[in-house]
Write a structure and sequence with these properties.
Length: 312
Amino acid sequence: MDFKKIDSVVDTFVKNNSLRIDTLPMVIDYSKQILNKKSLSFKDGWSREIELNDSIKNVYKFLLTLDGELASQFYNILMSKDENDKPYVNLLPRDKHPEGKNEVKDGRIYIYYDNTPLDMFTILHEMLHKMNECKILEDELNTETFARDYFGETVSILGELMLGEYLVNEGIITKEDFDKRKNLRLNNSKEAARDILIENELIELKLQGKEITYENLIEMFNTFDKTTSEYFVFADEKYDGSRLKNINRDGKLRTPVSQRYVIGYFLSNILSRRETLEEDFIKLHTAIGDPEANINNVYYDIIVKEVHENKK
């Protein structure tokens, strides 16, 4: 393990990410709450097979119940092609691309399907990213706004929750299918929460003027209360060092990405219980696709009220 390289990576991050560091206490609180949630066990498989075309139709019908403009945008993106007649949306069978990553990359969408209920959640999640990306800039290589960088996953994860309720109510999937999807999302969010807790401690070392060395990490680990989330997360890291190895390999922290998933999971579960859910969803989707929006606009105008009301 090259601790000098890790130290350099974290030092560079600290110097260039003052706002991310300022918002870390909030994200750490969310991370701890996520880690304290109990994951469930499910039998393998899904209740039924669903052909890809049917999955697309079901997502389209769901969007129609929210907003006709959203549904039209979904359809138009799905049908769009570049000047070489290549589609922007790439739908690929999972069995032929087992390592494929669902993502929006360089203006194109990559979705890997396996003809199960999971496909509908994946299609909506990635298409929502593209749909609010399209509102930002014509230059598809520069698609992040300040607000979108923080809350982009909130929209897509909230959309998944709304879609799941719709699919269950319409008898398209079972409640167990939906619960299984929510459990997968929880487990993924827990991994992001672990990233946040570990990297925050690395950042704290640098803020204290200390180098990141094996000895300093062990000293820090020994200060943790054995009942805390930090202790259990670092106990795992002490055993396999997987996240430190990733930083060493990739030359960057995962905090910018992981915080989006932590924020997205935590806030979407709050917003999904609002009586004005559909209105709030449209408002948030529109805001993060607005090049003039920023983190404060979105947080105070849309989210803060929901969080505070949830805690009453």
